[in-house]
Design a protein that fits this description.
By secondary structure, this protein is mainly α. The protein has one domain (13-206). It is 64% helix and 6% strand. It has six helices and three strands; from the N terminus they run αβββααααα. The chain has a three-stranded mixed beta sheet. A hairpin with a 2-residue loop joins β2 and β3 (54-58). α2 packs antiparallel against α4, α3 runs antiparallel to α4 and α5 packs antiparallel against α6 (197-206).
């Protein structure tokens, strides 16, 4: 196991990698264990990614947390990508296609009706309007579905981490993480598919023991 050779490094890279491997074994993940740590400009400060044999951490957080402080933050990232998403991918097509079925059926019948009763340029205008409405509907439904699903997965991963490693310890780690993010100037409140650290802390506080 070695840190990634390209890009910036932290003296704690080797220890972070060691913790990630330990978590794989503790969580019963049988996929290939990570063998590299990357500090990535494309990873937002409030996101940790453990995927494809690599631990990807936000470059803006380089040197701001110790390896020990990163460890509890790695656990939900591992659960999210290697447990929750794995199960979801098996049924993703079913979940995405079924809610959309009424819309294309409606569009098809509408087009048939238009073709039977409407002629001339107005037919093209109505056709484009119906297709545009259908695409807008599909886009909204999919975006709401994906946003809701991703957030639920994050909260579920946090809950499982708290259950396995201790709720108070995990909350303390998230609190330190949030404070450190604020010190970078990155806004604690922003619009992303995943929840903010503050939202994750709030959701954990709401959960019953």
């Amino acid at each position: 196991m070695f840190p990634a050779q390209d890009g910036p490094h932290s003296p704690d890279d080797e220890k972070i990698l060691k913790y990630a491997v330990e978590l794989f074994r503790e969580l019963g993940i049988t996929k290939t264990e990570p063998d590299a740590v990357t500090w990535d400009d494309d990873v937002k400060p409030d996101l940790v990614v453990v995927k494809y044999g690599e631990v990807r951490l936000p470059r803006t957080m380089l040197g701001r947390l110790t390896a020990e402080e990163w460890k509890p933050l790695l656990a939900p990232a591992i659960i999210y990508n290697y447990d929750l998403l794995r199960d979801e991918n098996r049924y993703a097509a079913l979940h995405l296609v079924l809610p959309q079925l009424p819309a294309p059926i409606f569009v098809a019948f509408s087009l048939i009706a238009l073709f039977r009763y409407v002629r001339g340029p107005i037919y093209i205008e109505l056709l484009l309007t119906i297709i545009g409405l259908y695409l807008a509907y599909t886009s909204i439904v999919l975006s709401l579905y994906i946003r809701g699903k991703w957030r639920r997965f994050f909260y579920t991963a946090d809950r499982q981490t708290a259950d396995k490693f201790g709720k108070e310890e995990f909350l303390a780690a998230l609190a330190k993480y949030g404070e450190t993010i604020s010190a970078t100037g990155y806004p604690r409140k922003r619009l992303h598919l995943w929840p903010t650290v503050s939202q994750r802390i709030g959701r954990l506080h709401q959960q019953k023991p």
